[in-house]
């Protein structure tokens, strides 16, 4: 090898030319705002007068704020009941699609992916129409079956499941597509070997497919969890956080506190908490993901 | 492929049926866009309109300045996508193949960029954009003018700064055989030339895939365009949908028509490039 | 070669970007002594956008000696607060903000709006300005919001459905007891499903509805002078007990109070309802054959005649560099001719005494709109108005759904509000 120091510095110059354009933009337009949010967490600030330092007061108030605690609960429920079904159904459908003929596969792929394409807000608006108590399609179905119609978005017990349904519907296609790609990496020879041993389809899936797409699953888990923790659009459009705060989420609270209540410092401290939780999960994944990968080398 | 053909056909048929039910909401969106407002508001339900009101689309476009708004979205999305593609691919290659001081720190910091939703960084970003020095009438200290407010640059810049593409690109380039770099080194190329001459031409699937993701994301943005634009002239299409939402009445038929044709370009883009999209997303899931 | 084309592309793109960052004039007027006025309107309906554009033309025509340029922007109601907050934070607040009375208290208290007392005193047409409108523009005795458009809730009922139920269509309810009696008589059910709503009561976003009745009972659950909440008042408890009892009689199909699409009245399945002016027009468009059967009530009361009413108001921002010019434009907007133009363009209920007849003659519902406007009450004039509305809604929902008694709910939320306000 040539003089490593010389190669290193020459490489480094090129590396900086390649990396810095991105990183400068990133640092200025994302890192600095994030840093400001962290800074404002410790202040009382209405976005107009000068911020006043209040130390940990915002965090203390948060622990006693029943609406915030409710939003934390809602966000966790939303995350759990969105991510798991999306993973499950995405995986199943990807497997079922994998063995179709090319033409059918392409058509089916498009069909299931379509909900993911328009903006979440657009789809939330359309689903709001479906949930309408009188003209919505769901209640029409119920009355046709002689069942009582429901107030999907106004009933405190049904509102969060209704919002979760929209989230699941929109993201199944995304998970399916990612899984489809992952499934292509599973060598067919492994299935043939299992066939020879007389393994049934369920056994094959559990012993071969699921372990082989482990990393795809991990990737999806992280991405889906981050997205679920940040859910805002559907809530803002469909329920405004109600009824009785059963659908408000952390980011929705951030929005309300920042822009309706003039409590920007408090909103920033909530954002801080979100960053901590989500950052923790992401770091976990990168750590676990790397060791699993290294184990297989 | 063992297994009877008949069984396969039945399964395909069942899946197609499920698929169609699955996209029923989208079908209803289109059918609603072809109804009259009276039909939509009536207590009586019908899947399809009595007489398709194609003119809803014309009526929707004629309200406001849709030609301008579509241009705005196209312009912003195009520039944001192209520029961020270039920047992300360059950085992704550097993280994948090169070593340099500060690499670890920069990479870890870039991770945080994945985590924040717009509502959180909205306010500080806005304040920074409006007080950006030497832009839009601002002096050196950022006072006096309006900075990037209500400009195309203001719309585009935050979308260039995102870091998701860097990770995807890095994954993609990690999959290239390192012999490519070795042989280009032997040929006397520096790293820049290696990237532009060798890696970039081989990046078509990545460009298609990342391009779709970026373009979709930018096209669907609502929160940032809302705060950074002032005049109705500068609105993007997602904002434009608001004109059908009156203070206490929603013009559903027009809103659904507009929502449909706003989503159409993205769908067409996915249809065209779906293979590349899937192939590239494969690598993101297989290397932690 | 490829590198070169890429470089050229990049150059082209960057120059386009730079070029666009440098401009954004509405018109290409040369910089002779041009005055600029920036206006932000809350609410993004095209009809209003068009109207404002035409008002700029008329203003310029009426002031040919002035070289003035208008910069207009509008934002949906849901996001208007966010937009305004950010503009102030960035130091780029507009000269004039066209919003509503709900925006007044908190922004006036922070000094974001200037007081218009001096300007108003010097206005030669101030005698034509409705006293009711003037009072709604006050905060702590100073005048901040120049109201120009009423937005009341109107109590409407279907005479045809009254006849069907054996009730006299010319004798609508005027007391709370009559109201519940009639509501029950006018409700039709199929099993548990309400097919005809006797009185529309929302099952979520209930705050406007509750507020109407609170005012009719003589309370607003807050002390505007001290800006303190008074949720746990006996009158409040009495009101919510009445409303919860009425709700639980099942007189309304469930719907969200802020989603007009769900309103039974607009689907012609409600006998009595509180509705807005634009919803009345919508009803006429969707059900033209029933428009003649609509009757209106202004004297429903327990202690006072009251309904809920917002008002669109103009504010001048403290960051404005053109306050005199802004006021000049506002007096133009409130002039007789321009008020009439506004009535023609968007059927706007006026705040000038001498245009009320013109308005009431314009459309079949305008008399009802104007009369309701005169007895309407806005949200309490307190800086924590957003919090007030959220907690009022929670009280309504808890009591209607039977999750808490009126007393429990009001006491609990009084405590919560006190905690929040101690911040």
Structure description:
- The complex is a heterotrimer of chains A (297), B (288) and C (423).
- Chain A contains 13 helices and 2 strands.
- Chain A is mostly helical and 297 residues long.
- Residues 1-5 of chain A have low confidence and may be disordered.
- Chain B has 288 residues and is mainly alpha-helical.
- Chain B has 2 domains: 1-63; 64-286, MetI-like (MetI-like fold).
- Chain B has 15 helices and no strands.
- In chain B, α4 (55-62) packs across α15 (252-286), α5 runs parallel beside α8 (152-160) and α5 crosses α12.
- Chain B starts with a helix and ends with a helix.
- Chain C is an alpha/beta fold and 423 residues long.
- Helix content of chain C is 44%, strand content 17%.
- Chains in contact: A-B, A-C, B-C.
- Chain A binds chain C through residues 44, 46-49, 61, 64, 66, 128-129, 132-135, 143, 148-149, 151, 153-156, 236, 239-240, 242-245, 255-256, 258-263, 266, and chain C through 78, 81-82, 85-86, 88-89, 106, 110, 112, 191-193, 203-205, 253-256, 258-259, 261-262, 264, 267, 269, 384, 386-387, 393-394, 397-398, 401, 403, 416, 419, 423.
């Amino acid at each position: 090898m040539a003089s490593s120091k010389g190669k290193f510095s020459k490489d480094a110059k090129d590396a900086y030319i390649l990396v810095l354009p991105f990183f400068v933009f990133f640092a200025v337009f994302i890192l600095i705002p994030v840093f400001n949010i962290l800074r404002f967490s410790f202040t009382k600030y209405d976005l107009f007068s000068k911020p006043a330092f209040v130390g940990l007061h915002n965090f203390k108030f948060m622990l006693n704020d029943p609406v915030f605690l409710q939003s934390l609960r809602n966000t966790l429920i939303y995350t759990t009941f969105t991510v798991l079904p999306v993973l499950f159904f995405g995986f199943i459908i990807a497997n079922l699609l994998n063995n179709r003929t090319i033409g059918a596969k392409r058509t089916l792929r498009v069909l299931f992916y379509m909900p993911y394409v328009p903006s979440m807000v657009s789809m939330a608006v359309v689903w709001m129409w479906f949930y309408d108590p009188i003209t919505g399609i769901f209640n029409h179905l119920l009355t046709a079956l002689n069942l009582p119609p429901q107030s999907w978005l106004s009933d405190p017990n049904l509102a969060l499941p209704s919002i979760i349904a929209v989230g699941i519907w929109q993201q199944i296609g995304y998970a399916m597509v990612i899984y489809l790609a992952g499934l292509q990496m599973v060598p067919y020879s492994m299935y043939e070997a299992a066939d020879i041993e007389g393994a049934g389809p369920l056994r094959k899936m559990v012993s071969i497919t699921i372990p082989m797409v482990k990393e795809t699953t991990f990737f999806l888990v992280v991405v889906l969890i981050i997205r679920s923790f940040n859910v805002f659009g559907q809530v803002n459009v469909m329920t405004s956080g109600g009824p009785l705060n059963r659908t408000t989420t952390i980011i929705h609270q951030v929005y309300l506190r920042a822009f309706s209540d003039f409590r920007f410092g408090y909103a920033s401290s909530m954002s801080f908490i979100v960053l901590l939780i989500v950052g923790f999960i992401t770091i976990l994944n990168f750590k676990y993901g790397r060791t699993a990968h290294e184990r297989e080398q | 492929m063992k297994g009877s053909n008949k069984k396969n056909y039945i399964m395909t048929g069942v899946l197609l049926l499920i698929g169609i039910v699955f996209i029923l909401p989208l079908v209803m969106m289109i059918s609603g866009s072809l109804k009259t407002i009276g039909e939509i508001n009536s207590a009586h339900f019908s899947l399809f309109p009595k007489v398709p009101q194609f003119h809803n689309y014309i009526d929707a476009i004629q309200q406001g300045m849709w030609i301008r708004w579509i241009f705005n979205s196209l312009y912003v999305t195009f520039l944001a996508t192209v520029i961020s593609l270039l920047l992300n691919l360059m950085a992704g290659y550097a993280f994948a193949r090169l070593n340099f001081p500060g690499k670890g720190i920069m990479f870890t910091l870039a991770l945080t960029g994945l985590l924040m939703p717009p509502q959180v960084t909205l306010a500080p970003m806005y304040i920074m954009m409006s007080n950006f020095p030497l832009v839009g009438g601002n002096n050196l200290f950022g006072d006096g003018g309006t900075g990037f407010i209500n400009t195309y640059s203001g719309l585009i810049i935050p979308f260039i700064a995102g870091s998701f593409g860097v990770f995807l690109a890095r994954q993609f380039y990690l999959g290239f055989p390192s012999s490519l770099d070795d042989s280009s080194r032997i040929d006397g190329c520096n790293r820049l030339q290696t990237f532009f001459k060798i890696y970039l031409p081989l990046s078509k699937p990545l460009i298609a895939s990342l391009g779709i993701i970026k373009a979709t994301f930018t096209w669907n943005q609502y929160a940032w365009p809302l705060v950074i634009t002032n005049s109705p002239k500068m609105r993007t299409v997602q904002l434009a949908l608001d004109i059908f939402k009156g203070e206490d009445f929603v013009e559903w038929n027009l809103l659904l028509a507009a929502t449909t044709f706003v989503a159409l370009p993205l769908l067409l883009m996915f249809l065209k490039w779906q293979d590349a999209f899937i192939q590239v997303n494969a690598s993101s899931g297989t290397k932690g | 070669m490829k590198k070169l084309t890429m470089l050229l592309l990049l150059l082209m793109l960057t120059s386009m970007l730079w070029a666009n960052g440098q401009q954004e004039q509405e018109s290409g007027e040369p910089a002779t002594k041009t005055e600029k006025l920036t206006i932000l309107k809350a609410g993004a309906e095209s009809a209003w956008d068009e109207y404002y554009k035409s008002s700029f033309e008329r203003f310029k025509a009426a002031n040919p000696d002035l070289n003035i340029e208008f910069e207009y922007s509008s934002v949906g109601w849901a996001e208007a607060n966010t937009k305004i907050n950010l503009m102030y934070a960035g130091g780029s607040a507009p000269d004039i903000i066209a919003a509503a009375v709900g925006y007044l208290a908190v922004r006036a208290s922070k000094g974001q709006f200037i007081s218009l007392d001096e300007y108003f005193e010097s206005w030669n047409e101030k005698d034509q300005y409705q006293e009711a409108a003037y009072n709604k523009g006050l905060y702590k005795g100073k005048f901040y919001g120049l109201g120009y458009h009423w937005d009341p809730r109107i109590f409407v009922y279907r005479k045809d459905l009254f006849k069907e139920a054996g009730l006299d269509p010319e004798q609508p309810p005027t007391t709370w007891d009559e109201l519940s009696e009639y509501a029950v008589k006018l409700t039709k059910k199929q099993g548990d499903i309400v097919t005809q709503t006797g009185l529309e009561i929302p099952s979520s976003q209930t705050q406007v509805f509750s507020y109407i009745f609170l005012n009719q009972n003589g309370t607003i659950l807050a002390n505007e002078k001290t800006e303190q909440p008074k949720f746990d008042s006996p009158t409040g408890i009495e009101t919510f007990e009445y409303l919860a009892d009425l709700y639980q009689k099942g007189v309304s199909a469930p719907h969200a109070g802020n989603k007009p699409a769900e309103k039974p009245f607009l689907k012609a399945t409600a006998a009595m309802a509180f509705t807005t002016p634009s919803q009345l027009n919508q009803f006429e468009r969707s059900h033209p054959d029933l428009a003649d059967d609509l009757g209106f009530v202004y004297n429903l009361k327990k202690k006072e005649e009251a309904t809920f009413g917002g008002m669109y108001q103009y504010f001048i921002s403290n960051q404005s560099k053109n306050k005199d010019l802004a006021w000049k434009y506002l007096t133009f907007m409130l002039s007789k001719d321009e008020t009439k133009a506004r009535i023609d363009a968007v059927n706007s209920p006026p705040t000038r005494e001498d245009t009320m007849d013109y308005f009431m003659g314009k459309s079949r519902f305008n008399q009802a709109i104007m009369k309701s406007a005169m007895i309407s009450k806005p949200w309490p004039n307190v800086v924590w108005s957003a919090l007030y509305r959220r907690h009022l809604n929670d009280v309504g929902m808890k009591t209607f759904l039977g999750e808490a008694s009126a007393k429990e709910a009001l006491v609990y939320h009084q405590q919560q509000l006190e905690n929040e306000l101690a911040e």
